[in-house]
Specification:
- The longest helix is centred in the first third of the chain and has 25 residues.
- This protein is 33% helix and 21% strand.
- The protein is globular, with a radius of gyration of 24 Å.
- It contains 12 helices and 19 strands.
- Helix 2 packs across helix 5 and helix 4 packs antiparallel against helix 5.
- Strand 1 and strand 2 form a beta hairpin.
- The N and C termini lie far apart (52 Å).
- It has 2 domains: 102 residues, no CATH class; 342 residues, no CATH class.
- With 495 residues, it is α+β, with helices and mostly antiparallel strands.
């Protein structure tokens, strides 16, 4: 490259980066009383100076009174009535309130109680003012709120992404082919340990579930299946998966997450745990409820010094997408790093859309998928890599116990799991204070993997590291986010 060409290239690159900076979402200015503006501005300054900023949602306004996630952004085009806009504003306000209370709990030294009460009073005042303005046809401009994605375009530019992706696609396809060949073909070995929730006294019948979801939709102007806490927990328990984990070491035992010291994370295997979180997706002109289940392991053991994927912490997210009547539309799963996205369609009408050229293909596994509505689904995992290699129904487990030819370990009773709210991970106790599991960029730094050096041209920050909800980029080639409310709609259709 000649000096002149180099200067032209650098000028063009600088122009691109300048345009990108101009396109970054800027928080909207919120009009509140002078005293409340000062109170909320001081709180924003305090949180920004501290290490307590929570990255699960994004501020919509400059004072942190309203917040957005990908689902709320996707709802904006549907806000064609005053009732719908008011509902959206309240939902956005609650997201910000939840984030703020978590950050206040994690702040050290803590703010005095009267200051915290004043922050909440001003936030409530700001909501009331926006609701009043909405009635008059004014208020926050919701025309184009944006969520920053988890792909860094500058990495793709400097990493020559159009070229380097051609070297990433073949190993991805080979890995997917291996997963297809292995799925549903490996019986649980004798070293399998079974985990599941204690059995419900009585499982919900399909008609009851359909009724609960119908009532939830009727309770709000946008038709969201928003369930109250008790009902949601009942459904979470009903659809919760069991786990059949090939257990060769302590790294294969899931547990509850806590801080052993302010810099050392511990997975307490004496408390087998599964964390839960509800989300929503758009599909076929409906808003569907999704139930997310998270398990954590202490590590993915390294097979050698140059193992790209091994390191501290590992885990899996299992997601259940429910149709409007409570039947399972599909399952999908990723590791807590966002890697290894797998889809398991339950509804036989669900078909994949044609893939675009030079895009990461979908890994769709549809052989003998249990429906999960009438009996619990058991997810079979390998040891060490914690890969999904099979799905069985609970009756499969019962048949193994009753069989004379069962493996020796299969006769052991299941280890009971306990459900916890995923938000617990955003504020864990340690040394008389509280601290999030996640850094303010949504990552867990101690879980970094060597693969980040190899895959940085794909644009994902610290590829392979465990990360917070809302930051799971799931495709190295192309762009996909696990929490994208239009993900299913963009990838599947009804035949």
């Amino acid at each position: 490259m000649s000096p002149r060409q180099r200067r032209q290239y650098l000028w063009l690159l600088g122009l691109i980066l300048l345009c990108l900076n101009a396109c970054v979402h800027q928080p909207l200015e919120l009009s509140v009383s002078e005293s409340c503006e000062q109170t909320l501005s001081e709180w924003q300054a305090t949180r920004n100076r501290s290490d307590t900023r929570d990255a699960q949602v994004y501020s919509l306004d400059d004072l942190g009174v309203f917040a957005i996630n990908r689902f709320l952004v996707g709802l904006v085009p549907k806000l064609d009535t005053l009732a719908g806009k008011e509902f959206w504003l309240r939902a956005s306000w609650r997201l910000a309130q939840e984030q703020r209370q978590i950050e206040l709990a994690n702040l050290w030294p803590a703010l005095p109680g009267e200051e915290r009460q004043e922050i909440e009073r001003c936030a409530q005042q700001a909501l009331n003012e926006q609701l009043a303005l909405a009635v008059q046809g004014f208020g926050l401009d919701l025309a184009s709120p944006e969520i920053p994605d988890d792909y860094r375009l500058w990495r793709r530019i400097f990493g020559l992404y159009p070229l380097t992706r051609l070297f990433v696609l073949p190993p991805l396809r080979a890995e997917q082919a291996q997963s297809r060949a292995q799925f549903q073909r490996v019986s649980p070995p004798a070293s399998t340990r079974w985990y599941q929730l204690p059995e419900l006294e009585q499982r919900l019948n399909p008609a009851k579930i359909s009724s609960l979801l119908q009532v939830a939709r009727a309770s709000n102007p946008l038709g969201l299946p928003v369930l109250d806490g008790a009902v949601l927990q009942t459904l979470m328990a009903h659809y919760a998966p069991g786990w059949a984990i090939d257990t060769r070491s302590a790294s294969d035992q899931p547990g509850r997450v806590n801080w052993q010291t302010p810099v050392q994370i511990n997975i307490d295997q004496q408390q087998p745990a599964m964390y839960t979180l509800a989300s929503y997706t758009h599909f076929q002109n409906e808003i569907l409820l999704q139930l997310n289940y998270f398990i954590w392991f202490s590590q993915r053991p390294k097979s050698g010094k140059l193992d790209l994927y091994g390191g501290q912490l590992d885990g899996l997210i299992w997601r259940v997408t429910l149709r409007a009547n409570g039947e399972v539309l599909a399952y999908d799963s990723i590791h807590q790093c966002g890697c290894f996205h797998q889809f398991f369609p339950v509804d036989k009408r669900l078909k994949t859309k044609p893939a675009m050229a030079f895009q990461e293909p979908l890994l769709v596994l549809n052989k003998d998928i249990p429906d999960g509505l009438r009996e619990r689904v058991i997810v079979q995992l390998t040891h060490s890599t914690h890969s999904v290699v099979g799905l069985q129904s609970q009756s499969f487990r019962a048949a193994q116990i009753d069989s004379d030819s069962r493996p020796a370990a299969s006769n052991e009773s299941s280890v009971p799991l306990v459900l916890y709210d995923y938000n617990e991970l955003r504020s864990l106790s340690v040394d008389d204070r509280r601290q999030s599991l996640f850094a303010d960029n949504g990552l867990i730094p101690v879980s970094r993997r060597l693969e980040r050096w190899l895959l940085w041209p794909m644009g994902i920050e610290s590829a392979g590291a465990m990360r917070q909800w809302g930051h799971h980029a799931t495709a190295f080639v192309g762009r996909r986010h696990f929490d994208d409310a239009d993900l299913l709609e963009s990838l599947f259709y009804y035949e």
